[in-house]
Amino acid sequence: MLRFCRGTLWIGLIFIYAPLVILVIYSFNASKLVTVWAGWSVSWYVGLLEEKQLINGVLLSLRIAFYTSLAAVVLGTLSAFALTRIPRFKGRTLFGGMVTAPLVMPEVITGLSLLLLFVAIAKLTGWFAERGMLTIWIAHTTFCSAYVAVVVSARLRELDLSIEEAAMDLGAKPWKVFFLITIPMIAPSLAAGGMMAFALSLDDLVLASFVTGPGATTMPIEIFSQVRLGVKPSINAIASLIILVVSLFTFLAWYLTRRAEKRRKQAIVQAMSVMAEEAAASR
């Protein structure tokens, strides 16, 4: 049974990561034909400096993904806090369904509904008459907040409420308990939700294609438009750089989270030892 599980795990890992490894290898291909190997070369990485449109799309996608991750973490955390800390309120079932609806809603329907919303607002108020970075950011925030809410809700349900109750018994205001006690305890889930929102926003094609406008071409839209005419080696190069950057940030976030968790456990052990010593001395 153990061999079967290990074999299944390795097959799954190879199935997931083998295409990425092949993409990175072919980004160093000297041939202009993607499927024909002609030796090692870094010419396509150097040639990225001339791909102004592709670089602009990457920068725009990174900016939108950064703003989306921040907004999604704020909205998702507030939604998760309302669902987990307020057991009963009018419309709770409807609110919970609306929070998680983007998880199961097809992106085509979500994108079309947002497009119609922006068009209606533009007719009534004049806002969003020219769709671009702002409309993409709103669409991505709407979509990614649901994922953050689910991740943070799972963490909030595992917390020990006695710590927060003890802080309020000592005179701390609810907002102070939230920022000084609750937020640090759910920091790993906030980081995970933010990284997930960043990745989903960076990868999105369907929503952005509905709500974008002239002059706001994201990286997925630009790559998709170029791939329809044939895959160029420069696309492999930019994709390899993105994989490298995302991997480095993921490793850094994992390392910082692990170190913070280790410090927290050491602080708990020290506090318990101090309490044990004080109890022994009082006897």
TrEMBL record:
<feature type="domain" description="ABC transmembrane type-1">
    <location>
        <begin position="58"/>
        <end position="253"/>
    </location>
</feature>
<keyword id="KW-1133">Transmembrane helix</keyword>
<keyword id="KW-0813">Transport</keyword>
<dbReference type="GO" id="GO:0005886">
    <property type="term" value="C:plasma membrane"/>
</dbReference>
<protein>
    <submittedName>
        <fullName>Spermidine/putrescine ABC transporter permease</fullName>
    </submittedName>
</protein>
<feature type="transmembrane region" description="Helical">
    <location>
        <begin position="134"/>
        <end position="156"/>
    </location>
</feature>
<feature type="transmembrane region" description="Helical">
    <location>
        <begin position="7"/>
        <end position="28"/>
    </location>
</feature>
<dbReference type="Pfam" id="PF00528">
    <property type="entry name" value="BPD_transp_1"/>
</dbReference>
<dbReference type="InterPro" id="IPR051789">
    <property type="entry name" value="Bact_Polyamine_Transport"/>
</dbReference>
<keyword id="KW-0472">Membrane</keyword>
<feature type="transmembrane region" description="Helical">
    <location>
        <begin position="64"/>
        <end position="83"/>
    </location>
</feature>
<dbReference type="GO" id="GO:0055085">
    <property type="term" value="P:transmembrane transport"/>
</dbReference>
<feature type="transmembrane region" description="Helical">
    <location>
        <begin position="235"/>
        <end position="256"/>
    </location>
</feature>
<keyword id="KW-1003">Cell membrane</keyword>
<feature type="transmembrane region" description="Helical">
    <location>
        <begin position="177"/>
        <end position="200"/>
    </location>
</feature>
<dbReference type="InterPro" id="IPR000515">
    <property type="entry name" value="MetI-like"/>
</dbReference>
<feature type="transmembrane region" description="Helical">
    <location>
        <begin position="95"/>
        <end position="122"/>
    </location>
</feature>
<comment type="similarity">
    <text>Belongs to the binding-protein-dependent transport system permease family. CysTW subfamily.</text>
</comment>
<dbReference type="InterPro" id="IPR035906">
    <property type="entry name" value="MetI-like_sf"/>
</dbReference>
<keyword id="KW-0812">Transmembrane</keyword>
